Structure formats: structure tokens, C-alpha cells
């Protein structure tokens, strides 16, 4: 049974993965080349091939990879796709930066706890040791946090492939630690930790596909400086509150992330509302993407506070602050996606 | 320039070719090491066309379908020549190192 579709129609269906502007230009050519790759010139064989054969998985994968590269476009793609590509790349860099800041904290607190470099002894509340309960996987998970510093620097320097490979390796201990905790029943808030792994480990590695060969390189120096600046911004107040015994003032990590994204939105508002700011829409789109991801994380982690009305209220307030701040930059984000005609293709005939 | 783009430009240096013709030529030039899928080929052609290194040459009817042929532009020929020179310089450097550290060099050193 052929299922009612010929090889050509099946291939055209695969090509629907590509953006419309690209299909207008290349579809007929791609179909002709694809059929050329199958047909033998023998009428009987060709009839069977056209009726029964299907595009191979590697062929479908090559079209899917092309589609991902076009939708998350480089500089030569229409403005809408370029804006999405840039926004996703910046959002990915920001999430990797978050991992790197956590990793840097492991390094700083380990150094401090062991009084390296002549540091004075830390307050008891800040002593850190690589020995969390649960055995080897949680310890390895802590160690892997440090690897995110390397992954962030690698990505910011434009070594995309190396960063992707390291990130794939870095998320494995987290999954193993989760599975171990799930099986042994020691996980206190399973929903939140699974959400963390899915959103900020697995989802992050998938989204790193936006760093393809057509992607423009990130601005190295500002991103590299963002690591120490991010550490001081996040952990300066955190360590001060912990050291002075005021940890009750600290929001949980999803709350910290919501408030930081909301703060970034507020700082960005003057630029987002300015008509002169060329290209600011991409940063607004980045912030809206980050607000969506961290908002989802906040919602999922609310489940852990259902027994505590006070913490539930605080968490909901964080969510409202995040949504309100993101709404203020959302119109500018929408402007970034305004459709623009595809760039001209010199010398290529219209299909 | 990526390896795939280099081979596609080299294939077109021999004259205008249509999509599947380029796939076959690239496989032959690379001695089977580069097997372009159609999706990958048109990703490369798209980029090369945007950069002005290739352009459409003509269209021909073949078994009821139109085959579009592509050719190198002047810029494409120039870019390919530059890339070939880079490869040649690298190959010369490798050969020179191998001559210095090969069995013959080791024999004379010992």
C-alpha cells in the first residue's frame, strides 16, 4: 500500500518544515534534485519508486536541520527569523550564565571554606563541602556545576560545537542524580527538580541548536564580563544575608530568577520605549522568552508551597511582578518580529 | 569557508551543474567522503547565492521537471582560488614537517 501519496508528495510534505519564503525560492529545485537522486531511468523501476518509496530519515533530518537554521536565522534571513534566532541565542547565553554563576559560587565557597589564598574563615552558615547526602551522583552534580563556567566561556568565545558537546555531557549527572533520588525516595520536591532539569538542562541543550554556522558571534567582552558581574549581583546580597543570619529574607531560587528577569525588564524599559533605539526589540524578545521560561519554572515550583499560605502568596507575588515587567517590554518584542521582505538573492531566478 | 561549500564551489568550477549533478560531483571530488543530502546542499547553495559566489545559469526540462543549473560568479571563482591557496599552503607546511620528523630525518638524527 502506498498510502495514497507518491514519493514527490511525501517529500513536499517534509519540505513544509521550511519557512514559506524559502520554499517559494527553492522547493521546485529541491524536489527535482531529490527525485533525480532516486530515479533510475528504467520506467518500471521508476514507477515503483515513485509510488512506494519514502524519503529516508537522513534526508528528513537534513531538511529539519535546515529548517531549524532558517527559523533561528543568521544575518541573511528575514528580520522576523533573525530576531527569533538572536533572542533565543541571547536567552541561551543567559541561562548558561546562570549555570556558570552557580558554578562560580561552588568554586568561591569551596576556596573560602578551605581558606585558600589566605582568606579568613567563613561564617559557619557559608561553609561548603562537596559531600551532599545521596552519594556519588549528587557530588558529581555539584562538580559539574563548575563545568558550566567552562561551557559559558566556550560559548561566549564562539566555540559553539565544543560548548554543545560539553553541555550534553554536563546534563547527564543531573539526570542520574534525579533518577537516583526518585528511586531511593530521598527527593524532597520532585516536581521542581525535574522541571529544573527539563527546562534548564535538556531544554537548554536543545536550544543550543540556535548557535549554528550562520549565527553571528556573540559580543565576547560584555558576555565575559557578565560572569563576575552576575556573580556579584546575585551572590553579593545572598552571601551577605546568609552571613548575617538573615536567610529568612532570601527568596527561593525560582523567586530570585523571577525577580532578576523582572529587574532586567525594568532596566530595559527606557530603551524598549525609545523610538530611536535601533534593534532593541531583540533584547525585549529575549527578556519575554526568559520571563516565559522562569515564569513556568515558578508555576511548577508552587506545588511545593501548597501547604504554606505565606510562601504561596510570596511566590505568586513574584510571578505577578515578573509578568507585569515582561508585559511592559512585550510591545517592543512584538515590533522585533515585524515581517520584513526576505533579502534579495543576487543572480538567483525566482521560482 | 566550510568543507561542504568548498566542494560545491569546486564542483561548479568545472562548469554549470544542476542540484543533483552537484551532489554527484562533490561525492566524486571528495572520493566519497562528502555525501551531501538535498537539505544540506540547498542550505549551502542558499548561503553561497546570498554571498554572491554562485548564480543561476539556465533551466532545462528533464522528464517533465525543470532542472536549474548554477555557475560560479567572478567573486566565487576568486573566493575558491583563495581558499585553494590556503589549503595548498597548509599541505606544503604539513609535508615540510613530515620531511623533518619522518623516518629519514630520524635516521640522520640518530
Please give the oligomerization state of what you see: heterodimer
Evaluate the radius of gyration of chain B: 18 Å
| Rg measurement of chain A, Å | 25 Å
Percent strand of chain B: 15-25%
Task: Spell out the helices and strands of chain A N to C.
Answer: HHHHHHHHHHHH
**Beta-sheet strand percentage of chain A?**
under 5%
Explain what you see:
The complex is a heterodimer of chains A (351) and B (110). Chain A is an all-alpha fold and 351 residues long. Chain A has helices at residues 7-15, 20-38, 43-52, 57-71, 79-113, 136-156, 160-184, 190-207, 220-243, 253-273, 280-301, 309-336. Among the domains of chain A are: 7-70, no CATH class; 91-219, no CATH class. In chain A, helix 5 crosses helix 6 (136-156). Chain A is elongated, with a radius of gyration of 25 Å. The model of chain A is unreliable at 339-351 (pLDDT under 50). Chain B is of the alpha+beta class and 110 residues long. Chain B has a single domain, classed as Arc Repressor Mutant, subunit A (Orthogonal Bundle), CATH 1.10.10. Chain B has helices at residues 3-13, 19-29, 38-50, 74-101, 103-109; strands at residues 17-18, 54-62, 65-72. Chain B has a three-stranded antiparallel beta sheet. In chain B, helix 1 (3-13) crosses helix 2. Chain B is elongated and about 60 Å long. The model of chain B has no long low-confidence stretch (mean pLDDT 87).
Question: Features of this protein?
Answer:
heterodimer; A: 351 residues; mainly alpha; 12 helices; 70% helix; disordered C terminus; B: 110 residues; alpha+beta; Arc Repressor Mutant, subunit A; 5 helices; 17% strand
What is the gist of this entry?
Chain A is mainly α. Chain A has helices at 7-15, 20-38, 43-52, 57-71, 79-113, 136-156, 160-184, 190-207, 220-243, 253-273, 280-301, 309-336.
List the helices and strands and how they pair.
The complex is a heterodimer of chains A (351) and B (110).
Chain A: H1 7-15, H2 20-38, H3 43-52, H4 57-71, H5 79-113, H6 136-156, H7 160-184, H8 190-207, H9 220-243, H10 253-273, H11 280-301, H12 309-336
Chain B: H1 3-13, E1 17-18, H2 19-29, H3 38-50, E2 54-62, E3 65-72, H4 74-101, H5 103-109
Helix pairs in contact in B: 1-2, 1-4
Amino acid at each position: 500500500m502506498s498510502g495514497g501519496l507518491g514519493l514527490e508528495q511525501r517529500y513536499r510534505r517534509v519540505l513544509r518544515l521550511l519557512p514559506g519564503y524559502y520554499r517559494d525560492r527553492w522547493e521546485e529545485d529541491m524536489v527535482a534534485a531529490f527525485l533525480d537522486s532516486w530515479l533510475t531511468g528504467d520506467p518500471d523501476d521508476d514507477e515503483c519508486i515513485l509510488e512506494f518509496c519514502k524519503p529516508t530519515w537522513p534526508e528528513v533530518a537534513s531538511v529539519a536541520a535546515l529548517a531549524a537554521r532558517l527559523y533561528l536565522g543568521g544575518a541573511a534571513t528575514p528580520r522576523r527569523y533573525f530576531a527569533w534566532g538572536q533572542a533565543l541565542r541571547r536567552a541561551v547565553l543567559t541561562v548558561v550564565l546562570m549555570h556558570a554563576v552557580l558554578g562560580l559560587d561552588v568554586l568561591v565557597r569551596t576556596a573560602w571554606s578551605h581558606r585558600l589564598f589566605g582568606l579568613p574563615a567563613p561564617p559557619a552558615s557559608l561553609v561548603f563541602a562537596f559531600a551532599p547526602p545521596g552519594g556519588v551522583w549528587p557530588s558529581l552534580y555539584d562538580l559539574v556545576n563548575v563545568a558550566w563556567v567552562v561551557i559559558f566561556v566556550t560559548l561566549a568565545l564562539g566555540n559553539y560545537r565544543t560548548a554543545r558537546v560539553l553541555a550534553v555531557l554536563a546534563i547527564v549527572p543531573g539526570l542520574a542524580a534525579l533518577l537516583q533520588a526518585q528511586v531511593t525516595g530521598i527527593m524532597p520536591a520532585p516536581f521542581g527538580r525535574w522541571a529544573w532539569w527539563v527546562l534548564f538542562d535538556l531544554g537548554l541543550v536543545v536550544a543550543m541548536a540556535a548557535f549554528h554556522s550562520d549565527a553571528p558571534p556573540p559580543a565576547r567582552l560584555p558576555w565575559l564580563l557578565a560572569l563576575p558581574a552576575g556573580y556579584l549581583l546575585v551572590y553579593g546580597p545572598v552571601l551577605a544575608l546568609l552571613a548575617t543570619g538573615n536567610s529568612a529574607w532570601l527568596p527561593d531560587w525560582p523567586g530570585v530568577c523571577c525577580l532578576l528577569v523582572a529587574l532586567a525588564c525594568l532596566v530595559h524599559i527606557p530603551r524598549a520605549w525609545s523610538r530611536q533605539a535601533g534593534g532593541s526589540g531583540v533584547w525585549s524578545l529575549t527578556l519575554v522568552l526568559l520571563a516565559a521560561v522562569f515564569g513556568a519554572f515558578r508555576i511548577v515550583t508552587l506545588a511545593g508551597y501548597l501547604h504554606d499560605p505565606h510562601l504561596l502568596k510570596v511566590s505568586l507575588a513574584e510571578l505577578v511582578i515578573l509578568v507585569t515587567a515582561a508585559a511592559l517590554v512585550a510591545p517592543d518584542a512584538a515590533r522585533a518580529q515585524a515581517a520584513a521582505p526576505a533579502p534579495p538573492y543576487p543572480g538567483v531566478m525566482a521560482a | 569557508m566550510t568543507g561542504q561549500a568548498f566542494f560545491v564551489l569546486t564542483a561548479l568550477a568545472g562548469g554549470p551543474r544542476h542540484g543533483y549533478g552537484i551532489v554527484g560531483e562533490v561525492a566524486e571530488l571528495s572520493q566519497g567522503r562528502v555525501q551531501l543530502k538535498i537539505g544540506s546542499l540547498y542550505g549551502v547553495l542558499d548561503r553561497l547565492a546570498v554571498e554572491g559566489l554562485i548564480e543561476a545559469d539556465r533551466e532545462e526540462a528533464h522528464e517533465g521537471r525543470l532542472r536549474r543549473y548554477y555557475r560560479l560568479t567572478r567573486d566565487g571563482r576568486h573566493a575558491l582560488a583563495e581558499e585553494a591557496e590556503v589549503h595548498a599552503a597548509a599541505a606544503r607546511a604539513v609535508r615540510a614537517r613530515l620531511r623533518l620528523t619522518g623516518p629519514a630525518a630520524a635516521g640522520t638524527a640518530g
